[in-house]
Design brief:
Elements lengths: L2 E4 L5 H9 L4 E5 L10 H11 L4 E6 L4 H11 L3 E4 L5 H7 L3 E7 L4 H5 L6 E6 L14 H8 L3 E4 L8 H8 L3 E4 L4 E3 L2 E2 L1 H13 L4
Parallel strand pairs: 1-2, 1-8, 2-3, 3-4, 4-5, 5-6, 6-7, 7-8
Antiparallel strand pairs: 9-10
Helix pairs in contact: 1-2
Protein backbone atom coordinates (compact mmCIF):
# COMPACT_ATOMS: atom_id res chain seq x y z
CA UNK A 1 0.00 0.00 0.00
CA UNK A 2 1.28 3.45 -0.92
CA UNK A 3 2.16 5.77 1.96
CA UNK A 4 1.06 9.40 2.24
CA UNK A 5 3.07 12.49 3.21
CA UNK A 6 1.20 15.71 3.96
CA UNK A 7 3.65 18.53 3.43
CA UNK A 8 3.76 22.19 4.40
CA UNK A 9 2.09 21.67 7.79
CA UNK A 10 2.37 24.77 9.98
CA UNK A 11 0.34 23.99 13.11
CA UNK A 12 0.16 21.27 15.74
CA UNK A 13 -3.59 20.98 15.26
CA UNK A 14 -3.26 20.27 11.54
CA UNK A 15 -0.43 17.80 12.10
CA UNK A 16 -2.35 15.82 14.71
CA UNK A 17 -5.49 15.75 12.61
CA UNK A 18 -3.62 14.68 9.46
CA UNK A 19 -2.04 11.77 11.32
CA UNK A 20 -5.44 10.84 12.78
CA UNK A 21 -6.77 10.66 9.22
CA UNK A 22 -4.02 8.22 8.28
CA UNK A 23 -1.07 10.32 7.10
CA UNK A 24 2.20 8.39 7.34
CA UNK A 25 4.46 11.44 7.29
CA UNK A 26 4.28 15.16 8.04
CA UNK A 27 6.44 17.63 6.14
CA UNK A 28 7.64 20.79 7.92
CA UNK A 29 9.02 23.52 5.67
CA UNK A 30 12.02 25.57 6.82
CA UNK A 31 12.51 27.55 3.60
CA UNK A 32 12.07 31.22 4.52
CA UNK A 33 10.93 32.09 1.01
CA UNK A 34 7.90 29.83 1.32
CA UNK A 35 4.44 30.84 2.49
CA UNK A 36 4.45 27.49 4.33
CA UNK A 37 7.63 28.21 6.30
CA UNK A 38 7.28 26.98 9.88
CA UNK A 39 8.70 28.61 13.00
CA UNK A 40 11.28 26.47 14.77
CA UNK A 41 9.41 26.45 18.08
CA UNK A 42 6.15 25.40 16.41
CA UNK A 43 8.04 22.77 14.43
CA UNK A 44 9.32 21.28 17.68
CA UNK A 45 5.80 21.07 19.10
CA UNK A 46 4.62 19.37 15.89
CA UNK A 47 7.37 16.76 16.13
CA UNK A 48 6.68 16.19 19.81
CA UNK A 49 2.98 15.70 19.07
CA UNK A 50 3.16 13.25 16.15
CA UNK A 51 6.61 11.62 15.98
CA UNK A 52 5.44 8.46 17.74
CA UNK A 53 2.81 7.87 15.03
CA UNK A 54 4.31 9.33 11.83
CA UNK A 55 7.58 10.14 10.10
CA UNK A 56 8.49 13.81 10.43
CA UNK A 57 10.37 15.47 7.57
CA UNK A 58 12.22 18.78 7.60
CA UNK A 59 12.13 20.42 4.17
CA UNK A 60 15.07 22.62 3.12
CA UNK A 61 15.94 24.61 0.01
CA UNK A 62 19.65 25.21 -0.63
CA UNK A 63 20.54 25.31 3.06
CA UNK A 64 24.02 24.43 4.25
CA UNK A 65 24.96 21.32 6.19
CA UNK A 66 25.50 23.21 9.46
CA UNK A 67 22.08 24.87 9.31
CA UNK A 68 20.35 21.59 8.55
CA UNK A 69 22.25 19.73 11.27
CA UNK A 70 21.47 22.39 13.89
CA UNK A 71 17.76 22.46 13.08
CA UNK A 72 17.47 18.70 13.07
CA UNK A 73 19.14 18.56 16.46
CA UNK A 74 16.91 21.33 17.87
CA UNK A 75 13.59 20.16 16.37
CA UNK A 76 14.08 16.40 16.20
CA UNK A 77 12.45 15.56 12.85
CA UNK A 78 13.20 12.11 11.43
CA UNK A 79 14.31 12.90 7.88
CA UNK A 80 15.72 15.75 5.80
CA UNK A 81 14.24 16.61 2.40
CA UNK A 82 16.53 18.61 0.11
CA UNK A 83 14.25 20.53 -2.24
CA UNK A 84 16.61 22.96 -3.92
CA UNK A 85 19.62 22.66 -6.21
CA UNK A 86 21.75 20.78 -3.69
CA UNK A 87 24.74 18.79 -4.91
CA UNK A 88 24.90 15.02 -4.44
CA UNK A 89 27.70 15.34 -1.90
CA UNK A 90 25.49 17.28 0.55
CA UNK A 91 22.90 14.51 0.39
CA UNK A 92 25.66 11.95 0.92
CA UNK A 93 26.70 13.70 4.15
CA UNK A 94 23.13 13.50 5.48
CA UNK A 95 22.36 9.90 4.51
CA UNK A 96 20.70 7.68 5.58
CA UNK A 97 18.39 10.24 7.19
CA UNK A 98 17.75 12.30 4.06
CA UNK A 99 16.46 12.20 0.49
CA UNK A 100 16.65 14.47 -2.55
CA UNK A 101 13.67 16.14 -4.20
CA UNK A 102 14.21 16.44 -7.94
CA UNK A 103 12.26 18.89 -10.10
CA UNK A 104 11.48 17.05 -13.31
CA UNK A 105 12.17 19.09 -16.46
CA UNK A 106 11.95 16.19 -18.89
CA UNK A 107 13.46 12.78 -19.70
CA UNK A 108 16.91 13.90 -18.50
CA UNK A 109 15.53 13.49 -14.96
CA UNK A 110 16.14 9.75 -15.26
CA UNK A 111 19.90 10.23 -15.51
CA UNK A 112 19.89 13.14 -13.08
CA UNK A 113 18.14 11.09 -10.41
CA UNK A 114 20.89 8.48 -10.63
CA UNK A 115 23.42 11.08 -9.43
CA UNK A 116 21.78 11.15 -6.00
CA UNK A 117 22.19 8.36 -3.50
CA UNK A 118 19.78 7.13 -0.90
CA UNK A 119 16.95 4.68 -0.75
CA UNK A 120 14.37 6.97 -2.35
CA UNK A 121 13.93 10.16 -4.34
CA UNK A 122 11.08 12.68 -4.46
CA UNK A 123 9.92 13.79 -7.90
CA UNK A 124 8.15 17.14 -8.29
CA UNK A 125 7.14 19.40 -11.15
CA UNK A 126 9.62 21.97 -12.41
CA UNK A 127 8.31 25.54 -12.35
CA UNK A 128 10.92 28.26 -12.98
CA UNK A 129 11.71 30.26 -9.85
CA UNK A 130 9.52 28.19 -7.52
CA UNK A 131 11.05 25.39 -5.41
CA UNK A 132 7.82 23.43 -4.91
CA UNK A 133 4.22 23.44 -3.76
CA UNK A 134 3.05 24.78 -7.13
CA UNK A 135 0.18 22.38 -7.79
CA UNK A 136 1.63 21.58 -11.23
CA UNK A 137 1.79 18.06 -12.71
CA UNK A 138 4.70 16.64 -14.73
CA UNK A 139 4.96 13.66 -17.08
CA UNK A 140 4.25 10.62 -14.92
CA UNK A 141 5.85 8.31 -17.49
CA UNK A 142 9.23 9.69 -16.38
CA UNK A 143 8.39 8.96 -12.75
CA UNK A 144 7.31 5.45 -13.68
CA UNK A 145 10.67 4.81 -15.33
CA UNK A 146 12.55 5.94 -12.22
CA UNK A 147 10.20 3.95 -9.95
CA UNK A 148 11.30 0.74 -11.66
CA UNK A 149 14.75 1.02 -10.07
CA UNK A 150 14.20 2.83 -6.74
CA UNK A 151 11.56 4.01 -4.32
CA UNK A 152 9.81 7.17 -5.53
CA UNK A 153 7.97 9.80 -3.54
CA UNK A 154 5.59 11.29 -6.12
CA UNK A 155 4.65 14.96 -5.73
CA UNK A 156 3.39 17.71 -8.01
CA UNK A 157 -0.24 18.65 -8.52
CA UNK A 158 -1.75 15.68 -6.71
CA UNK A 159 -5.31 15.93 -5.37
CA UNK A 160 -7.96 13.49 -4.19
CA UNK A 161 -9.26 13.50 -7.79
CA UNK A 162 -6.07 12.30 -9.50
CA UNK A 163 -4.01 10.49 -6.86
CA UNK A 164 -5.48 7.06 -7.60
CA UNK A 165 -4.60 7.45 -11.28
CA UNK A 166 -1.10 8.63 -10.33
CA UNK A 167 -0.56 5.57 -8.14
CA UNK A 168 -1.80 3.27 -10.92
CA UNK A 169 0.49 4.83 -13.53
CA UNK A 170 3.65 5.36 -11.48
CA UNK A 171 3.51 2.75 -8.68
CA UNK A 172 5.29 5.08 -6.23
CA UNK A 173 6.19 4.08 -2.69
CA UNK A 174 4.86 7.40 -1.38
CA UNK A 175 2.64 10.24 -2.57
CA UNK A 176 3.21 13.78 -1.32
CA UNK A 177 0.69 16.62 -1.23
CA UNK A 178 0.68 20.23 -0.01
CA UNK A 179 -1.45 22.66 -2.04
CA UNK A 180 -3.89 19.93 -3.06
CA UNK A 181 -5.31 19.68 0.49
CA UNK A 182 -5.22 23.32 1.58
CA UNK A 183 -7.59 26.13 2.45
CA UNK A 184 -4.64 28.51 2.05
CA UNK A 185 -0.86 27.95 2.07
CA UNK A 186 -0.01 26.08 5.28
CA UNK A 187 -3.63 25.61 6.42
CA UNK A 188 -5.04 22.17 5.70
CA UNK A 189 -8.62 21.33 4.75
CA UNK A 190 -9.37 18.13 6.64
CA UNK A 191 -12.11 17.06 4.24
CA UNK A 192 -9.56 17.20 1.42
CA UNK A 193 -6.90 15.50 3.55
CA UNK A 194 -9.29 12.66 4.35
CA UNK A 195 -10.39 12.27 0.73
CA UNK A 196 -6.79 12.31 -0.49
CA UNK A 197 -5.57 9.70 1.98
CA UNK A 198 -8.51 7.40 1.34
CA UNK A 199 -8.11 7.64 -2.45
CA UNK A 200 -4.36 7.05 -2.27
CA UNK A 201 -4.52 4.05 0.02
CA UNK A 202 -7.28 2.36 -1.97
CA UNK A 203 -5.31 2.74 -5.21
CA UNK A 204 -3.15 0.00 -6.68
CA UNK A 205 -0.14 0.39 -8.93
CA UNK A 206 -0.07 -1.51 -12.21
Amino acid sequence: MVKVKICGVTSVEDAVRCVAEGADAIGINFYKGSSRCCDKAIARTIVDAVAKDAVTVGVFVDAGYDEIYALRKAVGFSLVQLHGDEAPDLLARLLPHAFKALKVRGPTAVDESARYGGDCILLDAYVPGVPGGTGEIFDWAIARQIARTRRVVLAGGLTHRNVALAVARVAPSWVDVASGVEISPGRKNMDLVRAFIQAAKKAQGD
